[in-house]
């Protein structure tokens, strides 16, 4: 039932997303061939929708990969310090090599995100207490230390206010010409599908993985690299969007189980739908102004996360 | 005298105790025994007022327990539960001093100090006075908590599985101390104990529960019999009596029983 | 022995720090510099007392060494409430309700939150510590998101008023607010001090406390109420202090080597005040205002908390 309804819902959300906005747009105008309407569509609405869908797919897949590598269902880029590491990277790029441009920032974000993720996985492996809830707690703390470092640095360079603004997830700046980096998520998604089986095995633990002839370290590193690329791309293009990668895979797992090969398409589609829905919500909530998606998705995701914590306690 | 009348207790719709009416003899040591889930601990917690009965009443010295004030009750009844995790940094002496709280509300007077010393001496813990509770072994810690309960100077002492996780030596030390509390100081001790041998050798009185109801109740000599224990635990018992006490052997079934099972 | 020395040495140290803070580089300007600094010092003293007292008492009644009111979402709730007030009544809300009205309303909300928290999460004492911690951290994030959302809805002028609330600072409070806060803290202190021995007993847990004749539910309610007042005072005076409480409490336990509140509470207050003075001093003299107390506190205390969690053996 849900399986069949999901694509329909997704298409519906996408078409609504194309029509909602400050500038009125209707199918009638498009059919009439209004150049103005078409320009709005191709220069702003379509890029925005593409960015939303890709970010949604990418972030929810990131969550899945991390959850299998760390073997904890409460992790995702926001609860492993990944988001904060990427922010820190961008900040350093801005202050150290301001002339490097978007690519330089992206590279910095990628390197920081990857390094901090590796460190996080190493820390988690050495914990004396194995408790499923301790991992996200440490991840959140780790993230807040990273962001405290970023704040310290930003304040010294007088860009704190600035940083808080552009690091909050926001799709309103996405227009033709400045968002194309986000297409990097496409190959990531393909790679994730290819490696889905291996990530499932990874989730069964190091020993099982080795028994089945999978190089644990290499596969885990590849997974973290895929996550880092996705996170840094989304942070560069649209800013930080927390909790999507956590909530979606968990909700999907509750309904459909955890065999990645079967559930990945559902996860991807649900992630995209959630972001598109949050974006629509953000656009109508205080029309004609926009609520950044970092707030709508963060708020909605956070509430769902809380519900999930309370639910698992029972 | 502690008297229970028609006590009924249920958690979330599941009956744990059903129409329990018993009397606990004063100045005697009573053990609550029975299989897991029989309601022993629940019964003890009801007497301790840590749980409330759904219906029925508990009388302490003829007065309904529910009508006592919390502070008043603490001067009549002391309870010791298990403390598996204890991370507070308190010395043994400081912990025992808490036993005087019902009397002095935190401001110790000369009599309080004396009672603390007596309680520590009673259990032979003088050498551990300044030791931190979280650094003691499980057995020593249990002794420390018992000392606190003793310092409370109440007529009634309730202990919930005080022998859990203790080695034999500490278990015997605790049971002997409880015995002396009854014999020398005339206190009434009620405890939940799993090991039937400890119950049989140190108690005056035994109350056996099964499935939330009283199975049997009476002086040790009367109730520790093969047929009663067999029915209670569903095990084949052999009871050996010597001048040093009882041994209830239930480890291996007798040949007769074995044949019975195979046949 | 060692702990006794520390306990006695901290007070002269604190006084020396306070004097240094007020006098160093002041040019003995009694007309402006020193009075300004005294105001800041008063804010630090009151804030320090609030943070230390509320954190240590909260940890005692919840039976652990990790959770603090700030982590359980109290501060985020306070900020959300302030944002809501400004949204519904405008920045005139402060004038409209008056300072008393605002403080009173905040405290009522915090009391309500305390009650809800105790009723559903802390009350049965069976919830896992890490679970509570995760809940608190995520709740804080969600409440902060809502606050940010409200910030979008309000005008820029009001925004800056609100922005001011969101950072730790000692310059916020004026003399009058300090006076009211001081009176409140004093009131809490008197009640708290009278019931101090009971707090020791509460720390033993529900069953043991009841068995020792302490009316556990009643005293827990009383203490949650006191804590709510202290957090409201400290957040309105200094802004959010996040991980400061956990840092102060754990340093206190380590130095006091005792769990008796008669020792830990005063020591905790002294440590918190000293830390505030040192942080402010660093900001003013070393970093030359190129950083803020809030950022320093987050950095140091956050790192400490992270280390604490990583080393945790699960029995904290």
From TrEMBL, chain B:
Localisation per UniProt entry: Cell membrane
PROSITE patterns for the chain: ABC_TRANSPORTER_1, ABC_TRANSPORTER_2
Membrane topology type: Peripheral membrane protein
Location (main, coarse): membrane
A Pfam family that the UniProt record links to this protein: ABC_tran
Organism placement in taxonomy: Bacteria, Pseudomonadati, Pseudomonadota, Gammaproteobacteria, Pseudomonadales
The ABC transporter domain, residue ranges: 2-236
The protein's name: ATP-binding cassette domain-containing protein
CDD domains tied to this protein: ABC_Iron-Siderophores_B12_Hemin
A GO term, aspect molecular function: ATP binding
Keyword Nucleotide-binding: yes
Sorted UniProt keywords: ATP-binding, Cell membrane, Ion transport, Iron, Iron transport, Membrane, Nucleotide-binding, Transport
UniProt source species: Pseudomonas rubra
TrEMBL record, chain C:
Transmembrane segments: 41-64, 76-97, 103-122, 129-150, 222-251, 263-283, 289-310
Main location class: membrane
Keywords: Cell membrane, Membrane, Transmembrane, Transmembrane helix, Transport
Subcellular location: Cell membrane
Keyword DNA-binding applies: no
Claim: Cytoplasm is one of the keywords in the record: no
Protein topology in the membrane: Multi-pass membrane protein
Pfam family, one: FecCD
InterPro entries: ABC_BtuC-like, ABC_transptr_permease_BtuC
Domain of life: Bacteria
SUPFAM superfamilies from the UniProt entry: ABC transporter involved in vitamin B12 uptake, BtuC
Sequence similarity: Belongs to the binding-protein-dependent transport system permease family. FecCD subfamily.
Name of the protein in question: Iron chelate uptake ABC transporter family permease subunit
Source organism phylogeny: Bacteria, Pseudomonadati, Pseudomonadota, Gammaproteobacteria, Pseudomonadales
């Amino acid at each position: 039932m849900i399986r069949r309804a999901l694509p329909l819902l997704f298409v519906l959300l996408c078409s609504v997303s194309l029509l909602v906005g400050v500038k009125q747009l209707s199918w009638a105008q498009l059919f009439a061939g209004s150049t103005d309407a078409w320009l709005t569509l191709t220069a702003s609405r379509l890029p925005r929708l593409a960015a939303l869908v890709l970010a949604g797919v990418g972030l929810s897949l990131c969550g899945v990969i991390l959850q299998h590598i760390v073997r904890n269902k409460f992790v995702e880029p926001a609860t492993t310090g990944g988001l904060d590491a990427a922010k820190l990277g961008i900040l350093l790029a801005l202050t150290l090599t301001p002339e490097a441009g978007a690519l330089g920032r992206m590279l910095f974000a990628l390197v920081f995100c990857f390094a901090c993720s590796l460190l996080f996985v190493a820390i988690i492996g050495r914990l004396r207490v194995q408790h499923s809830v301790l991992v996200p707690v440490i991840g959140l703390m780790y993230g807040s230390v990273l962001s405290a470092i970023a704040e310290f640095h930003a304040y010294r360079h007088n860009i704190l206010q600035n940083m808080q603004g552009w690091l909050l997830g926001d799709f309103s700046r996405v227009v033709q010409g400045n968002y194309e980096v986000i297409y990097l998520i496409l190959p990531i998604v393909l790679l994730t599908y290819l490696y889905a089986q291996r990530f499932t095995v990874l989730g069964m633990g190091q020993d099982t993985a080795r028994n089945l002839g999978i190089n644990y370290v290499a596969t885990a590193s590849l997974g973290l690299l895929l996550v880092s690329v996705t996170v840094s791309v989304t942070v560069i293009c649209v800013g930080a969007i927390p909790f999507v990668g956590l909530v979606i895979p968990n909700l999907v797992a509750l309904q459909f189980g955890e065999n990645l090969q079967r559930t990945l398409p559902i996860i991807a589609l649900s992630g995209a739908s959630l972001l598109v829905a949050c974006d629509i919500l953000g656009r109508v909530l205080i029309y004609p102004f926009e609520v950044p998606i970092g707030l709508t998705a963060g708020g909605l995701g956070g509430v769902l996360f809380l519900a999930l914590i309370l639910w698992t306690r029972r | 005298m502690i008297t229970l009348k028609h006590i009924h207790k249920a958690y979330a719709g599941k009956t744990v105790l059903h129409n329990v009416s018993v009397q606990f003899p004063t100045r005697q040591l009573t053990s609550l025994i029975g299989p897991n889930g029989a309601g022993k601990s629940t019964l003890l917690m009801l007497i301790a007022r840590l749980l409330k009965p759904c219906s029925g009443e508990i009388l302490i010295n003829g007065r309904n327990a529910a009508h006592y004030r919390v502070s008043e009750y603490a001067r009549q009844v002391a309870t010791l539960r298990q403390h598996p995790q204890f991370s507070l940094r308190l010395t043994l002496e400081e912990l025992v001093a808490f036993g005087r709280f019902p009397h002095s509300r935190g401001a110790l007077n000369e009599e309080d100090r004396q009672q603390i010393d007596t309680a520590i001496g009673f259990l032979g813990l003088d050498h551990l006075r300044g030791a931190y509770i979280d650094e003691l072994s499980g057995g020593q810690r249990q002794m420390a908590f018992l000392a606190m309960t003793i310092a409370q100077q109440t007529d009634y002492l309730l202990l919930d599985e005080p022998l859990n996780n203790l080695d034999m030596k500490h278990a015997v030390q605790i049971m002997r101390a409880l015995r002396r509390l009854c014999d020398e100081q005339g206190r009434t001790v009620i405890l939940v104990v799993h090991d039937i041998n400890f119950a049989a050798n140190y108690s005056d009185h035994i109350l056996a529960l099964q499935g939330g109801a009283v199975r049997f109740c009476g002086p040790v000599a009367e109730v520790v019999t093969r047929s009663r224990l067999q029915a209670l635990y569903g095990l084949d018992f052999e009871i050996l009596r010597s001048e040093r006490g009882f041994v209830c052997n239930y480890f291996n079934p007798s040949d007769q029983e074995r044949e019975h099972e195979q046949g | 022995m060692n702990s006794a020395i520390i306990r006695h040495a901290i007070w002269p140290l604190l006084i020396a720090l306070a004097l240094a803070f007020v006098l160093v580089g002041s040019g003995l300007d009694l007309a402006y510099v020193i009075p300004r600094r005294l105001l800041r010092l008063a804010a630090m003293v009151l804030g320090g007392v609030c943070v230390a007292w509320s954190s240590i008492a909260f940890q005692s009644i919840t039976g652990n060494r990790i959770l603090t009111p700030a982590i359980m979402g109290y501060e985020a709730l306070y900020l959300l409430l302030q944002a809501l007030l400004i949204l519904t009544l405008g920045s005139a809300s402060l004038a409209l309700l008056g300072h008393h009205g605002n403080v009173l309303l905040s405290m009522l909300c915090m009391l309500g939150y305390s009650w809800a928290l105790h009723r559903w999460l802390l009350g049965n004492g069976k919830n896992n510590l890490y679970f509570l911690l995760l809940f608190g951290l995520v709740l804080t994030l969600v409440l902060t998101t809502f606050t940010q959302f409200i910030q979008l809805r309000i005008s820029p002028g009001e925004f800056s008023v609100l922005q001011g609330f969101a950072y730790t600072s000692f310059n916020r409070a004026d003399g009058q607010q300090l006076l009211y806060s001081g009176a409140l803290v004093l009131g809490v202190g008197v009640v708290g001090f009278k019931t101090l021995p009971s707090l020791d007993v509460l720390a033993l847990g529900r069953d043991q406390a009841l068995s020792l004749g302490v009316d556990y539910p009643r005293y827990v309610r009383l203490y949650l109420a006191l804590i709510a007042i202290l957090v409201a005072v400290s957040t309105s005076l200094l802004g959010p202090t996040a991980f400061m409480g956990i840092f102060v409490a754990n340093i206190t336990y380590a130095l006091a080597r005792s769990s008796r509140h008669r020792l830990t509470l005063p020591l905790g207050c002294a440590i918190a005040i000293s830390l505030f003075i040192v942080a402010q001093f660093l900001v003013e003299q070393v970093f030359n205002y190129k950083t803020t107390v809030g950022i320093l506190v987050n950095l140091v205390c956050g790192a400490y908390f992270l280390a604490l969690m990583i080393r945790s053996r699960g029995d904290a």
